[in-house]
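ok trying this again, last paste got cut off
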Amino acid sequence: MCSSRVSAPILLLLAVASPLAGAPQNGALTPEEVRDAEVCLPGIGEEGEHLVRFAGGKYSGPGIPFAEMRALAFGELAGEPSAVVEIVWNTGGSGNWEVVARFARAGGHAVCRGVYSPGSDLPEGGTMVARIEIRHDRVHLYGADPLHRRTIAKPLVVPASVFQPCLGR
C-alpha cells in the first residue's frame, strides 16, 4: 500500500518534468510555437535574407521596424504535420512586403521549412493573403484587396514544393 502512494506522485512528477510534457503527441505544432519561431524574410533588392526570431507573432529589429504573423493554418503537407502562416513586414519605406512561411516540427520545436511569395499570383486582383487553409496536401491562399474592401472567394492553390528553404540554412 505504501509503494502505491509513492509511485503515483513519482509518475506525475516525471510527466510534468519531461521536456515533451504538453507537446502534441502527433507532431502537430501549436499556434504559440509557430508565433515564437525563427523564420527567414527575403531581402529586398540586393540585400540578403534576414533570419529573425518572432515573439508572440511579432518582430522588430535592425532593418525591419515592423513584422507580424497574421493568417495561420494547420494541416498535413508533404507527409508531415505543418503550419502555414502569412507574414507581413516593413523595412522602413512606404510599402509592406508579404510572404507565406511553412513550418514543421524538428528537434522538438517549430522549424521553418521555407517561404513562398504569392505576389501577383493571387487571383482576381488580391493584394494580400487574408486566409489560409490546408487541404489534400495543398495550401489554399485566399486573397483580399483591402484598398477596395474586397475579399476574394477563389484561392490560389499551391503544393508544399513552392516553399523555398532559407539560403543560409
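PB: full thing came through this time. The CA atoms of residues 73 and 84 lie 5 Å apart.
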